[in-house]
Amino acid sequence: KQEVTQIPAALSVPEGENLVLNCSFTDSAIYNLQWFRQDPGKGLTSLLLIQSSQREQTSGRLNASLDKSSGRSTLYIAASQPGDSATYLCAALFSARQLTFGSGTQLTVLP
Amino acid sequence: DGGITQSPKYLFRKEGQNVTLSCEQNLNHDAMYWYRQDPGQGLRLIYYSQIVNDFQKGDIAEGYSVSREKKESFPLTVTSAQKNPTAFYLCASSIGAVGYEQYFGPGTRLTVT
């Protein structure tokens, strides 16, 4: 079964810290992986999309990496700010052609 | 201002009633999707449509129905056959069917009592 796992479920860090969010997946035959941000009670905002042929993508303070052989993706957030507090979800596109979502990591950046 | 709109934001219904959730996009995207999110969980796919007048079941289609008569619109009906309908429902779209970035609407929170 193709699964996506995000650990930990919750994370608190002080403002200014660099941090890494983890996403693991069970099938190396992945087409792409997408990272989203979700604020409480809101929809998802797409942050980064990494195709299977890519190793990483960057947008501002965010950097996402993809390692198919180990079944891992990471989202690196530099110089975290209280406004970064949200739930971060990763989703993988496998051969079934449907996105499979992790359950998310709830990030709190403390001022 | 391009985007995806979902209405209403909050919806309350009595058990046994069908209810239809609206999803409209003006991004000129071919593909549209409906997901369900339960507390502390990831999203699960209900239905998706790659093109007008065509749609496929996702992982949890039982108790739901959809239509795709226009490119811009993909309404979801939650029927009385859905055993546990209270959830947060999210609509998304992408420019193509497979491998493209998905963009999400703001969601509709449905409460059935």
Relevant terms:
heterodimer, A: 111 residues, mainly beta, five-stranded antiparallel β-sheet, 11 strands, 0% helix, 56% strand, globular, B: 113 residues, seven-stranded mixed β-sheet, four-stranded antiparallel β-sheet
What does this structure look like?
The complex is a heterodimer of chains A (111) and B (113). Chain A is mainly β and 111 residues long. Chain A has strands at 4-5, 10-14, 19-25, 32-38, 44-51, 56-59, 62-67, 72-77, 86-93, 99-101, 105-110. Chain B is mainly beta. Chain B has no helices and 11 strands. In chain B, a hairpin with a 5-residue loop joins strand 4 and strand 5. The radius of gyration of chain B is 13 Å and the shape is globular. The mean pLDDT of chain B is 93. Chains A and B meet through strand 4, strand 5 and strand 9 of A and strand 5, strand 9 and strand 10 of B.
Unreliable stretches of chain A, pLDDT < 50, 5 or more residues?
none
Largest sheet of chain B: 7 strands, mixed
Multimeric organization: heterodimer
Structural Rg of chain B: 13 Å
Ordered list of secondary-structure elements with their pairings:
The complex is a heterodimer of chains A (111) and B (113).
Chain A: E1 4-5, E2 10-14, E3 19-25, E4 32-38, E5 44-51, E6 56-59, E7 62-67, E8 72-77, E9 86-93, E10 99-101, E11 105-110
Parallel strand pairs in A: 2-11
Antiparallel strand pairs in A: 1-3, 3-8, 4-5, 4-9, 6-7, 7-8, 9-10, 9-11
Chain B: E1 4-7, E2 10-13, E3 19-25, E4 31-37, E5 43-51, E6 54-57, E7 64-66, E8 76-78, E9 87-94, E10 103-104, E11 108-112
Parallel strand pairs in B: 2-11
Antiparallel strand pairs in B: 1-3, 3-8, 4-5, 4-9, 5-6, 7-8, 9-10, 9-11
